[in-house]
Amino acid sequence: MARMFLSIKWKFLMVGIVLVFLPTFILGLVIYRTYRQEAADTIRRDLRLIAAGWYTAADIYYQEVQRILKREEYLVEKRLGSIALDVKKMVALEAAAHSSASEARLLDQVSRIKVGRSGYVFIIDGQDRFVLSGGRKDDGQKVADTSPGAKTAEYLAIISSARQLKEDESRTFHFDWSEPGSVDLRKKMSVLVYVPERNWVIGVGTYYSDFKSYDMERIVQDELKTRMASQKIGERGYVWVLNTAGSYVVSKDRFRDGENVMAARDARGRLFVLDIIQLARGLGAEGYFAYEYPWKNIGEQQPLNKMAAVMYYPKWDWIIGASAYETDYLKGLATIKWRVFQICALFMVLGSLVAYVFALWISRPIRKLEGVAASGNLNAIIDRKILDSNDEIGSLAQAFLSMMRHLNDKINEIEKSRMALIKSNSDLESAHGRLAQSEKLAAIGQLAAGVAHEVNNPLAYVMSNLGTLEQYVKTYEEVLDGYDSLCNQEPGAERQTGSCLRSGAALKLREQLRLDEVRRDMADLLVELNDGLERVKRIVIDLRAFARSESDVKVAANVRDIIEKVITIAGNEIRSKAHLEKDYGDLPPINCFPYRLGQVFMNIIVNAAQAVPPGEGVIRIRTFVEGASVVVEVTDNGCGILPENRDRIFEPFFTTKPVGQGTGLGLSVSYEIIKSHHGEIAVASEPGKGSIITIRLPIKAG
C-alpha cells in the first residue's frame, strides 16, 4: 500500500502557520474579551450610580412626606383630644339629670359631631358594649362581636388601659379598624378619655385617609414616577420600578404601569423577575446587585439582553432598576472584533510566506546532502529509487544505505572512500551553519512582526493626513473653478483672475470654502507627514537595537542612549497616561549589558505610567554623575506605595496591582540585574504623592 508523500517543506509550512496564527488568534480573543469586560464593568458602575440616585430621591421624598404627615398627625391628635374632653364634660352634665330622655338627647347630639370626612365619636360602657357607635349601626353590640377575631384582644386591651386614665387625662391609640359591612382594615387614630361616674370610655377617632397630607404620599410618588420614566440611559435604556408582588410601578414610557410581570421567563424557562425580587428582598440599606436578563417591550419583535443595577427601597416596597441594552454598551466592540479578524488574517498570510521561505531554505541543503551521500563518491550516479522515496529524510537514509553498500563492495578503495567521507562531513558542517543562520532569520521575522505592529500607529495618522490633503487639493480646484465661473457671470467684470478675486461674490465664496484656513492647514499637514515618517524610522531603528541578542561580555554604553530607546518603544504607554520630563546630565559611558539595563528602565518607566492619574500624570527622568557612579532618578506623581509594602516591592511575585494586571516579577528581575552590575536601586515613596526610584551604576565595573 503506497504511503502519502508529505515533504518536510510542507510540514514546516503547516507548523509555521499554526505557530503564527494560533497565538495571534488567542491574543486577539483575550483583547476582545478584556474590552468587553471593561465595557460591562463601566456600564455596571454607571447604572449603579443612576439607581442609587433614584433611591436617594425616593428616600428624600419619603422623609419629607413623613415630616409633614407627623406635623398634621400632631394637630389632628390635639383636635381629637379637645373633642373627647368636651364630650366628657357633656356626659358629666347629663349625669346630674340622669334620665332616659336626657341620655338619648345627649347621644343623639354627640352622634352628630363631625370629625373630618369619616371620623366620629363612640362610647363604650363597662360591659364593653357600644353605647354609641359610628353611624349608630353597632349600638348595643359588644366590641368583640363587631371586630375581626385577630384584632379583638388588641381592642379590649386598649379599652382596659383607657379605664385607668385620670380625670383630665387622655390617651392616643393607633390601630386598624373595619367599618360594619366591610372586611378591609384601615389605619385609624383615636383619643380616649374615661368617665368614672358612668364607667364609660369615650373615644373620638378618624381615619388617616382623612388627613390632608395622607394623599400627599401618592401625589409625591406620582411626581417621582414621572421623573423616573423620563430618565434615558444611552440610546434605549431606562429606569423601571417593580413591587415585590411583581407588578410594574414605573415602566418604559409608563405604558405598562400596574401590569404584573412575575410570570416572565427567559429562554431556559427561568422566572427571572421572581429571581430579581428575591435577591432585592435580601439587600441591606443602599445595597445593590447587577443582573442580566432578556426583555421585550411593547412594539419590539424579539427580546434583547439587558443589564440592570437593582436596589430595594422597603419603605415604599419599590424595587428600583436602572437598565441598559447590551447592544448599546457593546456597540463599539463590533469594530474591535473586525480588527482582530483582520490582524489574524494578516499574520496568517505573513506567517505562511515566512514559513514557506524558510522551508525552502532548509530543504534545499538537505537535498544537496542527499545527492552527495547517495553517490558514495564524487563521480557516482544518483539512484532513481532513492529519489522516489517518501520524503527527504527517507531519501537520506537510503543514501547512507547505498553508501554502506558501496563501501562494502569497494573495501580495497578505503582511502578513496575516506576522502569522500571527509568531503561529506564538510558539507554537513556547511549545512549546519546555514541551518543556524535560518534560525536567526526566524527570530528576525518574529521581531519584524512586532515592529509592524508598533509602526501601525504612526502610519495611521500619516494616512489620515494624506486623505485630508487630498480633500484640500480638491477644495483648491473647486475654488479656482468657482472664481472662473464668477468672472464669467459678473457683467462688466474683467477676465483677469486678479479682478475677479477682488469682487464681493468671490470674497464670499472664499469665506465659505475657508480658503485661508485650508492653505494654513496644508503646510501643517506636510510637516506632520514628515514627523510621522521620521518617527516610523526612529521606532524601527530603536526596536532593532533594543531586541538585538546580547553576548555575555559587557560593552561600553551610554545610559542616556539606553533610556531614549526605551522611551521610544514605550512611548505610546507613556503618552496616553502622563507628561514626560527629561533632565539629562553629561554622562560617561559605563561597562554594562545594554539590553538588561533597558529591561530595568522599561519596567520602572511603565510602572510609573501605570501609577499616575490619567491625563494629570508627570514622569521626570533625571541623570547625573555622583562620585564614581552614574545616577538615574525616575520620579512620578502617582498613587505612591504604602509603608507596609515598601520593603516588599523587590520580592518575587509581590504586586499591589489588581489580579490580572501584574505578575510581581518586574521589580524583582530589575533588582537582580542592577546587582549583577554591582549597582544599587532604592525607592522613596509617600502614599498619594508619588514615588522616586534611584539607580546607581558604577562607571568602572568588572
Write up what this structure looks like:
This protein has 702 residues and is α+β, with helices and mostly antiparallel strands. It has 5 domains: 1-214, PAS domain (Beta-Lactamase), CATH 3.30.450.20; 222-331, PAS domain (Beta-Lactamase), CATH 3.30.450; 342-409, no CATH class; 427-549; 552-698, Histidine kinase-like ATPase, C-terminal domain (Heat Shock Protein 90). The protein is 55% helix and 17% strand. It contains 19 helices and 18 strands. It has helices spanning 8-97, 100-111, 143-146, 149-162, 216-230, 272-281, 326-329, 333-375, 384-387, 392-409, 414-489, 497-501, 504-512, 515-547, 559-569, 571-575, 594-611, 643-646, 666-676; strands at 120-124, 130-132, 171-177, 186-195, 200-207, 232-233, 237-242, 248-250, 289-295, 304-313, 318-325, 555-557, 578-584, 590-592, 617-626, 629-636, 680-686, 690-698. Strands 6, 7, 8, 9, 10 and 11 form a 6-stranded antiparallel sheet that branches. Strands 2-1-5-4-3 form a 5-stranded antiparallel sheet. Helix 1 (8-97) packs antiparallel against helix 2 (100-111) and helix 11 (414-489) packs antiparallel against helix 14. It is elongated, with a radius of gyration of 46 Å. The two termini are 67 Å apart. The model is unreliable at 380-387, 430-449 and 493-499 (pLDDT under 50).
